[in-house]
Amino acid sequence: MLRHIFSNLSGKKEFLTFEDRKLLELFVKDTDGFIKEFVIPNKYLFIDEFNYAPKGGKLLKYIIDTQETKIFISGSSSVDLSIQAVKYLTGRIFIFTLHQFDWEEISKKITFEEYSLYGGYPRVVLSKTAEEKQLVVKNIYNTYFLREVKDILGLTDDYKLSQMIKGLALQIGNLVEYQEVGNISELSFRTVKSYANFLEKTFICRFVKPFFKNKRVEIVKNPKVYFFDTGLRNYIVEDFRKLDSREDKGALLENAFAMELIKHDVKFNFWRSKKQAEVDFIVSRGNRRYQGYEIKYKIGDKDKDSISLRSFRHQYPRIPVRMLDYALLNKELKTIL
Questions:
Q1: Which of 173, 227, 286, 326 could cysteine-pair with 233, CB 3.0–4.6 Å?
Q2: Inter-residue contact 136 to 127 (CB < 8 Å)
Q3: Which pairs from 236-242 meet CB under 8 Å and 24+ separation?
Q4: Could you tell me the maximum CA-CA distance found in the chain, to the nearest angstrom?
């Protein structure tokens, strides 16, 4: 993506990467020399893997405040990139998050079932066989642990975190039971909460808060969990079976829908009463307008007039709720969003 943007810009430009240790050393130890050689001569400067630069944000702030060159920075390590750069550049920076492919981008290449099973990582989508797709997802997950977990979190006993992630993967579409996750992973409640925050910042899990107006009768604290990529989630639970043979097919489709909302930067919650009536998604349409969605693998007659829907409609008569099954998601997801 960066190379594409770079190639379409006119004017003098340079593309660097801080995987080049000599360039990184020049930037850190001789910033003025770096400015003289790479910043001043160029209208545009691209720096990939900026997260490798210690105190990179402070140095970049100095460059931006003294030079007119437009600078693009990127990094595969989202947490480190934000620590090293973003927090020092308030008011001086535009931030773009490049997610995996969404369904619209790849709907002509694969089926929605494949998308639900293997997710949207580009290298996975481009793989030709199921075996290759699974191997690529495995490598992505292992790389995550090597780079994000060990290098940034500094966690040596990563087994407990992997158990926590697996516990969350088994809970998709459900209220997060922190105590249960703690028991599975042998982590304290406080540590589980801390790691959950880390998983969200590294684009592994999204923790969705409930929609409520009446604290007496509605859930107000416990979040639900979804994974940013269903392929990664399915690798974690070791299950790539087709939808019709899975016990978790409803939850998996629910996660696939959440995945699309996340990639389109749509704000959403879920609704649940203390009597366990529930609507899967309450999507914000702006200006205090909302749309509810219930996700099912197949919609039965009982689903259309369930206790949950009646309860929600009584509580929120002005919020419409639409039921979506696999067939509708496959055909209409692009128009729904």
A1: 227
A2: yes
A3: 236/141, 236/165, 236/166, 236/169, 237/166, 237/169, 237/170, 240/117, 240/118, 240/130, 240/134, 242/113, 242/117
A4: 71
Edge-first strand listing for the sheet containing 268-272 = 268-272, 278-286, 289-295, 321-324
Give this prediction's pTM: 0.89
Q: Residue ranges of the domains in the chain?
A: 2-88, 103-336
Report the distance separating Cα 324 and Cα 230, nearest Å.
18
SS3 210: strand
**214 neighbors 315 (Cβ within 8 angstroms):** yes
pLDDT in tens, 64-80: 999 999 999 987 666 65
Structure tokens at 304: 């259309």
3.30.110.40, 3.30.70.1140, 2.40.128.20, 3.40.50.300: which CATH number matches 2-88?
A: 3.40.50.300
Q: Which regions of the chain are under pLDDT 70?
A: 76-86, 151-153
The per-residue pLDDT for 202 is 84
Rounded distance between C-alpha atoms, residue 236 and residue 244, angstroms: 20
